[in-house]
Amino acid sequence: AQTVTQSQPEMSVQEAETVTLSCTYDTSESDYYLFWYKQPPSRQMILVIRQEAYKQQNATENRFSVNFQKAAKSFSLKISDSQLGDAAMYFCAYSPGVTTDSWGKFQFGAGTQVVVTP
Amino acid sequence: DAGVTQSPTHLIKTRGQQVTLRCSPKSGHDTVSWYQQALGQGPQFIFQYYEEEERQRGNFPDRFSGHQFPNYSSELNVNALLLGDSALYLCASSPRTGREETQYFGPGTRLLVL
User: A84: helix, coil or strand?
Assistant: First the structure.
C-alpha cells in the first residue's frame, strides 16, 4: 500500500521569503503522479502543482516549484516570494497511474500548515 | 466554466440517521471521487465512480455507498450514522479518458453527527 508522509505540521515564513515543504511517499509502482494541493480556511482544495513520475524535470508553476527525487521518494514544494494569500494547509498527494490496478485512488498526507507573517 | 459543485454546504444529523450528499462534476469530467476529511487530517479516499459504476474503493464500511447518474453527477449515502462520521466530505472530478490524473475538488459538505 502506498503511504504519503508530511513530517512538518506547521511552517512559518515571512512575506517575500521562501519556504520549503517536505513530502515523502512509499510505493512499489513506477507509474504514478504526485500533487500539491492547497486548502485555505474556505475549505476548497486547490491544485498547486502536478508532477508525472516518468518526467525527470521538476514541475514549476509561477512562484511554486517542486524538487522531485524519485529514487529517494521525496517530493518537496518550494514557495518563493511568499504572499499573505499563500497561508493555508498544504497537502501532498499520490495517485497511481493508468497502468495500475489502483488508478484514481488518491492518497493524501496529513498536511502542513503554512503561516505567512508580514 | 462551472467547477465542481456540492450540496448541501452544511448538514446536521443524529446518530442512526441516514444522509445523502450530492456532487456535480466539472464540465467535461466523467469521473467522480469522494473523500472524507476529519478535522485536522488529510482527505481519505472513499470511492470513485465512472460509467455509473464503483471503480475503486477505500477502506470504508458498507454503510458508505454511492451512485452516479447518466449526467455524471453523483451521490454519497451514509447509513446508520455514527458520531465518528462527522467530517468534511469532498467530491472531486476528473476526466477518465487519456492519462489525465488531476482531480478537481468541490467546496465540500460539512456533516455534523450529534
Answer: helix
Cα–Cα dist B17/A31, whole Å:
41
CB-CB under 8 Å, B56 with A45? no
pLDDT digits (tens, 9 = 90+) for A47-87: 999 999 988 899 999 999 999 999 999 999 999 999 999 99
Minimal C-alpha gap between B94 and chain A (Å):
9
What whole-number distance in Å separates Cα of residue B85 and Cα of residue A15?
A: 38
Q: Are B54 and B37 in contact (CB under 8 A)?
A: no
Give the residues across from A95 on adjacent strands. Answer: A33
- State how far the Cα of A109 lies from the Cα of B6, in Å rounded to an integer: 23
Q: pLDDT for A24-43, tens place per residue?
A: 999 988 889 999 999 998 88
A111 and B41 in contact by Cβ < 8 A?
yes
Angle at B99 between CA A91 and CA B95, to 5 degrees: 75
**Cβ–Cβ below 8 Å for A104 and B58:** no
Judged by a CB distance cut-off of 8 A, whether residue A46 touches chain B is yes
- Give yes or no for a contact between A25 and A94, defined as CB atoms under 8 angstroms apart: yes
